[in-house]
What does this fold into?
Amino acid sequence: MSQKVKSINNLGPLSTLLAKTAIKQGAKIKVISLPAVFWVIKGTKKWLFFGVYTPLNKLPGGKIADNKKLTKKIWQEAKIPIAQDLVVTPDNYKKLLSKTDINFPVVAKPMAGTLKGIGVVTNIRTKKTLGKIVKKLFIKGHHRVLVEEFYSGLNDYRVLVLKGKIIAVARRIPPFVVGDGKGSIKKLLEEKNAERKKSKEIKLGLIKVDEEMKMNLKNQKLSLKSVPKVGETICVKNVCNLGAGGEVEDVTSKICKYNKDLAIKAAEVMDLELAGLDFLCDDIAKPLKKGKGILLEVNEHPDIALHHFPQIGRPKLVADQIIKEILKQK
It folds into this structure.
């Protein structure tokens, strides 16, 4: 194997996917630093990549997208439906949580850096529990925590926008186990994680026992020792990232025009040409109306692998379209 091919294969999974796609489209790759920095070169033109940070997005929009509160301010001005929220810090959290009248249940998450759902705790039902969760996030080094309304019973969709067009939509399914009447939830999790480790197409994150899982099981009056009935499905987390143990169904053909237009608008007001938008709603095929769903957040370096390797439905090879648009740039 040549050194060049070896270097490409040693890039991170998403970087490798983009790099190999660029080669298919007639470009050359020059790896600068593993596992993430490389040039895509075609003719006299070249484009610098840093992992899945592509040349498509400008710095201001990308930086704002990394801040959930700033994103919501921009969306609120654009009349895009968002969740009620507040920002807490180590200096104000005791006073703020005791006096603020926010609707429970809520979600607590770091203001930035929630890759793979790390640090996100959902369905928090009391101020006392919220205070404990927020304090733990502070101890872990998160100095600004976003607390927002939790919308239960809704589906989570990732809508991928590229240059004003919808190129893929996926329903993200939270981690779950199915009972066999014998094994405990802990045992079922071990078995499911063993299966996820076998995945060759894409690295599937393991379903880890954390604060989010403990909270979710407690709210269902369950524990890791509980034994589900045969065929009983137990949702163990609400966070549905692939890296947190979630699964994916492609539903690109189902999104309605209203939601398409809403996603395109949400990306445009952030000045993002490539954006992964998270919708919470009952059905992506029905118009998202105020009070019936929200846009949760935007990712300016979205995980494209979930569209290439869904567990349910047909793959959408979005890397091909992304690279094609980049190679058009002057």
Observations:
- The longest strand covers residues 165-173.
- The mean pLDDT is 91.
- The CA atoms of residues 5 and 29 lie 9 Å apart.
- The radius of gyration is 21 Å.
